[in-house]
Amino acid sequence: MTKVNHSDHNHFLLRSQARDEVITVLKAEKIDLALLEAKYGFVTPQKVLQALQRDAIQGKSDVFQEDIYEKPMVELDKLVEKQRGTHRRMLEQLLMVEQAHKQALYKLEDEKRNHGEFMRKSDEFTNLLEQERERSVTNFFVVIS
User: Fold this and answer.
1) Residue 43: helix, strand or coil by DSSP?
2) Helix or strand or coil: residue 3?
3) Torsion sign over Cα 80, 83, 89, 93
4) pTM listed for this prediction
5) What is the pLDDT of residues 103-125, one digit of tens each?
6) How many CB atoms lie within 10 A of CB 130?
7) CA angle 53, 56, 60 (to 5 degrees)
């Protein structure tokens, strides 16, 4: 086994750290600007976004966190689906009310027609009674005279 002296160890450690920094800088430069804007939520010069991403990589945080617009979009999609369901239920209720309204109109028209028939028959009966009364009165005066 070979012995590694202290200065070789430090030199190796510094080279390793330098290599890691170069890798993180290259990773930050490789990431698409639109993705960085989506992650941080604002548009700034590319170098600033790359520096933020480089710092996030060096800080050993997740290489790419969830897009800040993703959760609101999911919530918006849920809201749209809920609204569609509500809209569908409202249309069903409107259809039921419309059918009930039509049925009520048919009943009213039927009642109106029946009332018209009743009034016509009532008028005919009244006319017959008046004619009968006139005949009786005429017959009465004929008999008296």
Assistant:
1) coil
2) coil
3) negative
4) 0.40
5) 999 999 999 999 999 999 999 99
6) 10
7) 140
